[in-house]
Amino acid sequence: MKEETAIFAGGCFWCMVHPFDQQPGIISVISGYTGGHVPNPTYEQVCSETTGHTEAVKITFDADVISYKDLVEIYWTVADPTDATGQFQDRGDSYRPVIFYANDEQKDIAEKSKAALAESGEFDEPIVTKIQPAKEFYVAEDYHQDFYKKNPLRYEMEEKGGRAAFLEKHQK
Predict the structure, then answer these.
(1) What are the helix and strand counts (H, E) for the chain?
(2) Is there a contact between 84 and 114 (Cβ–Cβ < 8 Å)?
(3) Predicted confidence pLDDT, tens digits, the chain (172 residues)
């Protein structure tokens, strides 16, 4: 097994877990905070928009089963790459879309994938998702973990309220 990690931010982490958690080769998907300047932030601090963090997921995967490139391609289907000020019904800096890379190989894969998406013509607006080096990842409080399993009805409402409508509009 070749264990690697990927970190993606694309709106509320509640809705980011399920699409990755369902893939073969995924070891874990953890909700948390990254990209900011305050050590070990709480949910309330991140929501205050004063820490610089964004809600994100840290995916541990078996690269012999699923590639980082595959994960980036899944990411583009669950985040709106044209909205730098939030995602779907979630607004604010803590919901900005970012691919956080762990090394030069991940950076190259993410940048090439972003360029291909921009050239595809799938979106009328520019692709604004940032690609940045990974920073410290802080695990979110326990009640945020596996939200779609713990609160299936609320998850379904959140999903239908934004991400599902986006997917319906943009999937070919």
Answers:
(1) 7, 8
(2) no
(3) 999 999 999 877 777 888 898 899 999 999 999 999 999 999 999 989 899 999 999 999 999 999 999 999 999 988 889 887 766 566 667 788 999 999 999 999 999 999 999 999 888 889 999 999 999 999 987 776 766 555 556 556 565 555 555 555 554 4
Residue extents of the structural domains in the chain: 3-170
The CATH fold assigned to 3-170 is Peptide Methionine Sulfoxide Reductase; Chain A (3.30.1060)
Active site residue 47: no
DSSP assignment letter at 6: E
| Amino acid, single-letter form, for residue 139 | V
CA–CA distance, 59 with 108 (Å, rounded to integer): 18
Catalytic residue among 6, 7, 9, 12: 12
Q: What is the pTM of this model?
A: 0.85
